[in-house]
Amino acid sequence: MRTDDGPTIKLEDYRPTDFVLHSVAMTIRLFEGSAEIDTQLVLERREGVGADTPLVLDGDELTLSGVTLDGAALAADAYTASPERLEISALPAAGRFTLAIGTRIVPEENTKLMGLYRSNGVWCTQCEAEGFRRITYFLDRPDVLAPYKVRIEADKAAAPILLSNGNPAEHGELPDDRHFAVWDDPFNKPSYLFAVVAGDLDSIHEEFTTASGKPVTLGIYTEKGRVAQAGYAMDALKRSMWWDERRFGREYDLDVFNVVAISDFNMGAMENKGLNVFNHKYVLLDSDTATDADYAGVETVIAHEYFHNWTGNRITCRDWFQLCLKEGLTVYRDQEFSADERSAPVQRINSVRRLKAHQFPEDQGPLQHPVRPREYKEINNFYTATVYDKGAELVRMIATILGRDDFRKGMDLYFERHDGDAATIEDFIACFEDAAGADLTQFALWYSQAGTPSLAITEDYDAASGTLTVGLKQALEVGASGTGGAPFHIPVRFGLVGSNGEDKAFTVAHGAEVDGDVIHLTGEEETVVFENVGERPYLSVLRDFSAPVTLHHEQSLSDRLALARLDPNLFNRWRILNDLVAEALVEASRKPLAPSQPPLPPEIVDAILGSAGDESIEAAYRAQALALPSEPEIARMLAENVDPDAIHAAVEAAKRFIGERGRKLFEAIRADARPAADFSPDADSAGRRSLANVALGYLAAASGDPAPAEAQYAAARNMTDRLAALAILVHRFPAADASKAALADFYTRFEDDGLVVDKWFALQATIPDVAALDTVAGLLDHPKFTLRNPNRVRALVGTFAGGNQLAFHRADGAGYRFVAERIAELDKLNPQIAARIATTFRSWRSFEAGRRHAAKAALENLAAIPDLSNDTRDIVGRSLR
Ligand code: 0A1
Ligand code: ZN
Q1: Active-site residue (options: 130, 153, 305, 341)
Q2: Which residues sit with their C-beta closer than 6 Å to ligand 1?
Q3: Measuring CA to CA, which of 102, 678, 693, 768 is 20 to 30 A from 717?
Q4: Is the ipTM of this complex over 0.95?
Q5: Are residues 378 and 492 in the same domain?
Q6: Pocket test for ligand 1, best of 114, 266, 270 (most atoms within 8 A of CB)
Q7: Which domain, by its residues, includes 879?
Q8: What is its EC number (predicted)?
Q9: Which of 499, 523, 547 is the last residue of a domain?
């Protein structure tokens, strides 16, 4: 096995650059088959740096075509150049100098999709994290900030549209049917926010006037013929701009804001200054081709990238260890936006589901790392659920600890104090401490200690004195890989619920600090004694999931069921039911139930049906009440000796049981859900569709009859209803003629729309049957399959590995071998995507012995490949550790 993997970058080694960058001017000449980049850097030796210290610039697969210093050629011995590095000595001891660097690249051959590449003929860039060094030699790190002036030249027919960051400055004609455009970005920015797009694109434009009256021209650019699908993204953009002004006092700063939708993109989208580049999945939609979930996704990602303009761009990160400074904070902001635009409890449920599905397994397995990592080998592998989603939870906890007003004061101070800076987590936390007069020293441990703490709650009520004693105990059960195990500051939002469903008043006699409805657990173990509580209350804890912990609340079934009905905190009603079901399914997966035993306790099922049937609550919430914990979530809770077949059998039995017991309700929901004449993507309409489709799923599970789904598929007038019906057919009745016919029909209807073809691939990749492996293997030869498009790879291979419990985790190990082979192929083209798919192995140690050995062997085979990329080697290496 190869061991010479790349160097480890450490937080403690941070030091500023030896040279200060003052400005960047670039000319980018685009041709078929090549691009010429001329870059002028105005630099200066940093004070105190010795005159013999050379300038070292980063490169990646670059070819140097020329370099001059203040207009004069450099002596051959004054520099050394390799594809990865340009080192220049004999530079002025003091004062500014201009370095002009020429590079030549071939965007058409760039399959990594980092740097400058072509997607369906369009030239585009992706520079975060270290892609700029694939365009020119540079101090390619986030604490090197400068204004940029960029001139793009290209053939007029091939690229009538020429875009870059900032404001448009000039444009004009050139000989040979070429033209140019100059863009001027006055705001200091790091290279990772640089962008260029050139191509034959359609666009829509709208005007937005900021709160202080500044006009901004908004543009969305798409490939030819698709711009009609960009209207919702434009609407979401305007709503985001309006919201950020109201909620955070943040106005947009340039004259233009452009979004470009690209087919081939490694991630969701990118917040380049004034020129956001998007995976077209998060821009393009209409009701025929996109589901309600897609609409919500577009809204969130548009908002997220826009919000980065302040949290990320105006204030950026000092180094990549601080990634959560921009990502956690921006996810928090986009979550708050969605909560305001849609429904707060439903959004919170969605965020918590996501956290548990992606972050908890990461935090409890070999890829565990602190929200602010201390070291990395490949930064691309740290765009993780821990940095993003747990990072957002940490910001949310700060807001919970300080309260809304002080939180806003801290944010205001952050924007004021650090505008234009490359900041750190310490800087961020200090703003809240200074604005609110709070001490967040202990809280800051959340950034450095990895792992999910557990929180155990006990309660003891004394009727004679009317006191309730609550015990709270925290522990880091799953080892925090050497990052420490000191107690966290855990904010526990709570309420004492009376039998009338209202929160009761109380006084706190003594114990842990209680502030309003938040208990501040700071010790390992503490108690709180509540006095004057009158009749015994139902204790509702961890409301709104106020901290990312695993909760163990010793509470009777009858109290939990009462809270599931009465808790004024809707999130907690859902959470309590979801926990009850999850615990029952974990038990049922551990050992087969006796034939006489119902698959779920009937009183729990009745509680779920009660929530689902409560017409006083919004439909989206009712649909959430019916959604069972996912099979991977049950696997995570089992923690060891996991048998996915047993989990699937338990979940299927539960679905049939709920379907039978709730048949009348489900039929009533379906009867109620006559589709409106016109499709509207609003949250309320989407919630109704979601509830009706969940009901259809349960009816199909209970009846074993594909006919209602078949009928819905045939009659569907939007993608949400069509895809829901098709999923029921294909997943539940894969052998039925109706299912085969619908799947074929779906393909013929949409074969020209890549985003819908992705759904068609993904649906087959997730058929819950070991035989899905053969289906997926067969689809590799489908004319529409390609390893070169990340969305397509994710749809077939990524979805299979991440979403097919039965076939990926086949007992014979064939699923693991298949995915490992695909990773090896993909690694040669696009290591970032290969490494991401490799993370699906992360929980391999929790499976039963046969699967465990097979998964390990597949990982070891990958590790043995001599020229495996740094990206994949890092994930595989850490997974095996
Ligand atoms: N900053 C982006 C995420 C992103 C990160 C790396 C990329 O490189 C391929 C692309 C995008 C965001 O948070 O949206
Ligand atoms: Zn982001």
Answers
A1: 305
A2: 126, 128, 266-271, 304-305, 327, 383
A3: 768
A4: yes
A5: no
A6: 270
A7: 751-881
A8: 3.4.11.2
A9: 547
